[in-house]
Amino acid sequence: MSRRTPTGAAVLQSTVTEAITEAVLDELSEQGYARLSMEAVAKRAGVGKSALYRRWASKQEMAIAVIAEFSGEQVRVPDTGSLRGDLRASLDTVTEWLTHPRFSRIMPDLVAEMARNPELGKVVEVMAGAPKRERTVVMLRRAIERGELPPDLDVEIALDLIAAPVYWRVIVRAVEAEPGYLDKLTDLLLRALSSES
């Protein structure tokens, strides 16, 4: 579901792509995925629908490509030299991503839509979920190489454990992460991951 390559003399202008991307995010946050339309995005971006179809084949492809790109920019996996530093910095970026003014409205709607549309769920996992998990695996592997985590660490469980508390608190419970919460969570994750085998 990657961005389409233009044919013939068509050239994708970055300013147009940026306007469309912003329009997609605004429409998703205001209207939700089910009511998202190519027409509304084109109108908001100030372009013709053909500009969208030169980039993406469908509404689903457009929406997920924009969400994946946005999420990739927001969620970074740092290399601070220590597992504690990496975990704490990762929790910061995940929290910023999930509390972003637009994305905090997009995420719950998208999760609900994925429950109704399994095909959408598969696409979201491939384009948005898997790349973030792969980057976090790199962080965990570095910690194993430094001797901070056991070599037999269950990486899949560790990945779920790192992301779940912030998601549950911010998205499901809609509760802010008060001062000190991420520090305490980091310490708890360190103890859990270090003893996991």
What does this structure look like?
By secondary structure, this protein is mainly α. The chain has nine helices and no strands. Helix 1 crosses helix 2, helix 5 packs across helix 9 and helix 6 packs across helix 7. The mean pLDDT is 88.
Summary of the model, kept short:
The protein has 197 residues and is mainly alpha-helical. It contains 9 helices and no strands. The chain folds into 2 domains: 14-62, Orthogonal Bundle (Arc Repressor Mutant, subunit A); 75-195, Orthogonal Bundle (Tetracycline Repressor, domain 2), CATH 1.10.357.10.
Flag low-confidence runs.
none
**Largest sheet: number of strands, sense, barrel closure:** none
Task: Report the top-level CATH class of the largest domain.
Answer: Mainly Alpha
Helix content: over 70%
The CATH homologous superfamily of the largest domain is called Tetracycline Repressor, domain 2
Number of strands: 0
Decide which structural class fits the backbone: mainly alpha
Task: Supply database-style keywords.
197 residues; mainly alpha; Arc Repressor Mutant, subunit A; Tetracycline Repressor, domain 2; 70% helix; DNA-binding
